[in-house]
Specification:
Blueprint: H1 3-13, H2 25-40, E1 45-49, E2 66-71, E3 79-85, E4 105-106, E5 110-112, H3 120-135, E6 142-148, H4 156-165, E7 173-176, E8 188-193, E9 195-204, E10 210-211, H5 222-231, H6 254-263, H7 267-274, H8 287-293, E11 296-304, E12 314-315, E13 318-327, H9 333-346, E14 353-363, E15 366-367, H10 373-385, E16 391-395, H11 402-409, E17 412-415, E18 431-433, H12 434-450
Helix pairs in contact: 1-3, 3-12, 10-12
Length: about 450
């Protein structure tokens, strides 16, 4: 990797662009501005967009901007819409980082920093490959770019903007670099993504924290109640216990399932990766079925009462849980949330009140046909890069706004990323290697040329 490219990458990573944190809005704007200037040097027109007519009344109410850029190609050329995001996950818990989370640090040809992979590293590598393509000889296609500032928290601004951008973002191909390669950096084409929905459920009981001796056996306990509610979401075999949650599910075809199993990881490799037995989900279904083709309801966190040193003998006044749901084709995000809400309301413990907050209904899942001509073209390019050829994966993760962009642009999605398990995305000590960056950059130049 050239020192100049490494310097640019490190400069981009230093912005603390946590799109879900209003206190970091200036960092998000500065990050988007840096990318805008970078793209303008390549001949793009670029602007930062906000939803709604005009600007909000105060800077404090502004969301992180969406960066939109485009560059005209030769007459009659096809059009590629590139999607990526410059926002990152919060760095918490800070004490688990071995290096400062927003100070890019190189160890053994690997850059450690929040966003090193997800998605600044992957998107910037793709943009560097685009720069290489534009500097080469030959016919040039039309390029449109959308860089999101809220992907990690639901892409609300971009979703609100899409109706007004429909004509501008029309394209033939939707190119994304925000997923993982197969193990040992074997290229992978993503043939499907799960949808996502998330929310907070709050349980309130007494009007204050109570003495557990004076009120024990009298007052209901929200900490106990939230634990019971969360436990009620699944049956003993790990299957989801919520009536109506699975309504409409479209099962994978025989070809999809057999192809996914062919390229799926082993239980042993995953156990080594996560440090425990990969036994989540429904008993009797394979690892690939549980991660690629089954929906999930996950408790992201439960919070209540005292958690400091020693003891504090109380009955807490309230408790809350953060929940996310991964959805599969055929499920309605609104219907899935409604089913979970009804399930929890029906089981609200006596003497307590249940409330739902921060509800993001999210986006639906999608699967793409294996027979797609675009997949065949991508497979040819990836086979040039790696004699093993590409794996096909149905990713258990989500990129919520892709379903909306796909429908509005009319473009065929092509999702190829270069992440690996050791990158630790969404965790402390996130990283991305020079080798991965170079692969993503090479892929970008080659696929733009092929298109």
């Amino acid at each position: 990797m050239e020192e100049s490219v490494l310097g640019e990458w490190r400069e981009l990573l230093k912005y603390e662009s946590v799109g879900s944190d209003p206190s970091r809005l200036k960092e998000c704007v500065a990050c988007a501005s840096w990318l805008r200037k970078w793209l303008m040097k390549l001949g793009f027109t670029a602007e930062m967009l906000y939803p709604g007519e005009g600007s909000p009344a105060s800077e404090g109410s502004l969301p992180p901007p969406v960066l939109y850029a485009e560059r005209q190609g030769d007459e009659g050329s096809s059009t590629v819409l590139v999607y990526g995001h410059y926002d990152v996950q919060p760095p918490d818990p800070l004490h688990e980082w071995r290096t400062p989370p927003f100070e890019p640090t190189i160890v053994d040809d690997r850059v450690y920093c929040r966003g090193a992979n997800d998605d600044k590293g992957q998107t910037f590598a793709l943009l560097c490959g685009l720069r290489d393509y534009l500097a080469s000889d030959g016919r040039k296609i039309n390029i449109k770019i959308v860089l999101d500032g809220q992907e990690e928290s639901g892409s609300k601004s971009l979703s609100d903007l899409v109706p007004s951008l429909r004509r501008r973002i029309a394209a033939d191909v939707l190119l994304v670099c925000d997923t993982s390669a197969a193990p040992a950096l074997r290229p992978a084409i993503i043939a499907g993504l799960r949808g996502i929905s998330h929310f907070t459920v709050r349980l309130s009981g007494p009007n204050r924290d109570l003495h557990s001796g004076e009120y024990g056996g009298i007052s209901p306990n929200p900490a106990q109640g939230i634990a019971e509610l969360m436990a009620s979401l699944h049956l003993p075999d790990g299957s989801i216990a919520v009536a109506g949650f699975r309504d409409g599910i479209e099962n994978p075809t025989h070809d999809e399932l057999s192809t996914a199993e062919m390229f799926g990881p082993s239980d042993e490799s995953l156990a080594e990766d996560i440090g425990c037995d990969p036994c989540g989900g429904q008993t009797g279904k394979t690892l690939v079925q549980r991660n690629s083709f089954e929906p999930t309801i996950e408790v992201n966190g439960i919070h209540s009462g005292y958690g400091g040193p020693g003891s504090k003998t109380i009955i807490p006044s309230s408790a809350f849980a953060k929940i996310s749901m991964r959805l599969v084709p055929g499920q309605s995000p609104r219907g899935a949330f409604a089913a979970v809400r009804a399930h929890l309301e029906d089981r609200c413990p006596k003497g307590m009140k249940l409330a739902f907050e921060d509800v993001v209904e999210g986006s639906a899942a999608f699967r793409l046909p294996l027979s797609s001509p675009l997949f065949r073209l991508a497979a040819d390019v990836l086979s040039e890069m790696d004699p093993r050829g590409p794996a096909f994966q149905w990713c258990g993760a989500s990129i919520p706004v892709l379903s909306i962009l796909r429908e509005a642009s009319g473009a065929a999605p092509l999702i190829v990323g270069w992440g690996q398990a050791e990158d630790r995305i969404h965790s402390p000590n996130e990283s991305y290697s020079f080798a991965q960056f170079d692969k993503a950059r090479e892929w970008a130049k080659k696929i733009f040329t092929a298109l």
